[in-house]
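User: Could you go from structure to sequence for me? I need the amino acid at each position, not a summary. Structure tokens:
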């Protein structure tokens, strides 16, 4: 009886801790409430199975505990029970997978008109790039990375000249404006993660990965690296600030472009193209 009661208390205590725990997700700040709903569905399904299994164990411990003179029955298989368990498990797994597949389709389908923003991770800082007035990001290559070109932009690409480059600073986004976040890594695996955004993706050297979001409220949010990337992984942090349209454009006007950060090379390039001396 004592063991059966302990098992039931474990099940009840786990449910109560889940419902009344002070630790929960940060308040969401993007359109990805679908991800929260999918996780909640998984919680409820796995929680129901957990409670059912613990309750069944408690019943068996109480119902079939040892008694003097009583012998255990040998029942090697029960086809009816096996069918019920197989069907129930299949339904439960499908119920957990189906919402995730729907959300994943939405996650990789970027809406038309989304603004592209590039995030580059390196040990142990974040750098950001936004399109300039032409609305298009220029090309880049890690072989171009230098002290005056931290994101490796191509000096010969006209679209790169007006790109806004922010090294180890704050990234601003416009509220209610879809953003496609392009992710690059210079050295090892990183992961650009803002808990309030819910969306994240690994950053793999040699690849450009992405996710997209639509910020739904203004505020200042912490950027974390969610992939162990070395000794200073814990201090690889930055800020993302979501602004109203007017404040966002006012901030954007104050930022320096790639051409302004590399004036000497920009002058040489312009002179060469014009045929001057």
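Assistant: Here is the amino acid at each position, in order:
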């Amino acid at each position: 009886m004592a063991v059966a009661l302990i098992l039931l208390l474990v099940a009840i205590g786990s449910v109560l801790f889940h419902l009344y725990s002070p630790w929960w997700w940060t308040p969401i700040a993007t359109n990805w409430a679908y991800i929260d709903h999918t996780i909640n569905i998984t919680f409820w399904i796995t929680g129901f199975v957990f409670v059912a299994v613990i309750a069944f164990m408690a019943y068996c411990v109480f119902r079939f505990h040892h008694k003097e003179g009583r012998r255990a029955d040998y029942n090697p298989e029960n086809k009816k029970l096996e069918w019920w368990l197989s069907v129930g498990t299949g339904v439960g797994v499908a119920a957990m997978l189906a919402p995730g597949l729907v959300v994943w389709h939405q996650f990789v389908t970027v809406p038309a008109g989304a603004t592209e923003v590039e995030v580059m991770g390196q040990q142990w800082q974040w750098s950001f790039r936004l399109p300039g007035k032409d609305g298009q990001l220029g090309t880049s290559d890690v072989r171009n990375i230098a002290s005056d070109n931290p994101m490796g932009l191509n000096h010969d690409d006209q679209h790169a000249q007006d790109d806004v480059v922010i090294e180890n600073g704050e990234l601003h986004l416009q509220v209610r404006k879809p953003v496609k976040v392009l992710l690059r890594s210079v050295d090892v695996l990183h992961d650009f993660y803002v808990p309030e955004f819910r969306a994240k993706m690994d950053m793999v050297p040699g690849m450009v990965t992405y996710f997209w979001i639509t910020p739904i409220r203004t505020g200042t949010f912490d950027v974390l690296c969610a992939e162990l990337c070395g000794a200073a992984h814990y201090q690889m942090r930055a800020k993302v600030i979501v602004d109203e349209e007017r404040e966002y454009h006012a901030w954007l006007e104050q930022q320096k472009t790639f051409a302004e950060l590399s004036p000497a090379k920009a002058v040489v390039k312009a002179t060469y193209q014009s045929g001057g001396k």
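One structural detail worth keeping in mind: Confidence is low (pLDDT under 50) at residues 266-274.
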